[in-house]
Amino acid sequence: MAGPSPARIPTSQLFSLEGKTVIATGATGGLGTEMCVAMAEAGANIVSIHLPADPGQPSLEEAIESVGRKCTAFEGDVGDSVALRRAFQSIWNAGVVPDILLNCAGLNRRGPIEEMTDDKIDLIISVNLRGAYIAAQEFGTQLRKLNRPGKIVNIASFTSYVAMRDVSVYAATKGGVLQMTKAFSNEWAEFGIQVNAICPGYFRTPLAQSLLDKWPEMEEYIIKRTPAGRWGAPADLRGTILFLASPASDFVTGTSIVVDGGMQFR
């Protein structure tokens, strides 16, 4: 059980992750890498769960090591429950003591509802929702076994609130991640485990580029729809992830922060 209010942390240390260990899925993606580097710059070491032969893993390791932190890699397919649980068991067997989970792995297959095949539906759900659930479950269960506090940061989406066209399955999974965040928080807050979500809007990443390649007109639409008048840059998520991963958010749980330049409210 969580005890009384903790001692006051000096403001200069409120966002420090010195000595912490982050376990991250999706760390080799455009948003994942930026958030992992930000946490490394704040003092954390990174443990990455990545697909076998993921071409982004060497770049991630180089980026983390360039700021003086350690990046350790474990292979595992987030969309494969057995492989994902095996990856976590390998992490625990290696003696990793967890502090923070960045639950960032995700994918999308765009198209009208009537074109969503069983294979597409199963793929999106297996990675975005089931994989996110299992990662949080494995991570939090280990914290409970060790009687440790910790942080889980799920990556949901702007579409958790506003379902755009041609993203029906993706929006369904991200809505599920949002509700999953609340449910996990309700059960684990008393043990000092905070569970929150970040909901990004439209960010310039390789995933977004595939959207523009298919529908070039989305460039102008997104800029006009966003009150800030631009796409998000991965660096725009640094402050949010540091807040939710650090002692600054020790009394924040079960909530989400939308980072979309105001798009949700236009």
Keywords, separated by commas or semicolons:
7 strands, 14% strand, seven-stranded parallel beta sheet, Rossmann fold, alpha/beta, 8 helices, 266 residues, globular
Structure explained in plain terms:
- The chain is of the alpha/beta class.
- It has one domain (11-261): 3-Layer(aba) Sandwich (Rossmann fold).
- The protein is built from eight helices and seven strands; from the N terminus they run E-H-E-H-E-H-E-H-E-H-E-H-H-H-E.
- The chain has helices at 30-41, 57-66, 81-93, 118-146, 168-188, 206-214, 218-225, 238-245; strands spanning 21-25, 45-50, 71-75, 100-103, 150-155, 193-200, 256-259.
- It has a seven-stranded parallel sheet with strand order 3-2-1-4-5-6-7, with helices on both faces.
- Strand 5 (150-155), helix 5 and strand 6 form a beta-alpha-beta unit.
- Helix 1 (30-41) packs across helix 8 (238-245), helix 3 runs parallel beside helix 4 (118-146) and helix 4 (118-146) runs parallel beside helix 5 (168-188).
- It is globular, with a radius of gyration of 18 Å.
- The N and C termini lie far apart (42 Å).
How do the strands and helices of this protein lay out in sequence?
Elements: E1 21-25, H1 30-41, E2 45-50, H2 57-66, E3 71-75, H3 81-93, E4 100-103, H4 118-146, E5 150-155, H5 168-188, E6 193-200, H6 206-214, H7 218-225, H8 238-245, E7 256-259
Parallel strand pairs: 1-2, 1-4, 2-3, 4-5, 5-6, 6-7
Level-2 CATH architecture: 3-Layer(aba) Sandwich
Helix content: 40-55%
Number of helices: 8
> Mind telling me the C-alpha Rg?
18 Å
Q: Overall 3D geometry?
A: globular
Average predicted confidence as pLDDT: 94
Per CATH, the superfamily is NAD(P)-binding Rossmann-like Domain
Quote the CATH topology: Rossmann fold
Termini separation (Å)? 42 Å
**What proportion of the residues form beta strands (DSSP E)?**
5-15%
Q: Tally the beta strands.
A: 7
Instruction: Note the main sheet.
Output: 7 strands, parallel
Strands of the widest sheet, in order across it, are 3-2-1-4-5-6-7
**Low-pLDDT regions:** none
**Oligomeric state as shown:** single chain
Number of domains: 1
Which structural class do the helices and strands define? alpha/beta
Just give the CATH class: Alpha Beta
- Provide the succession of SSEs: EHEHEHEHEHEHHHE
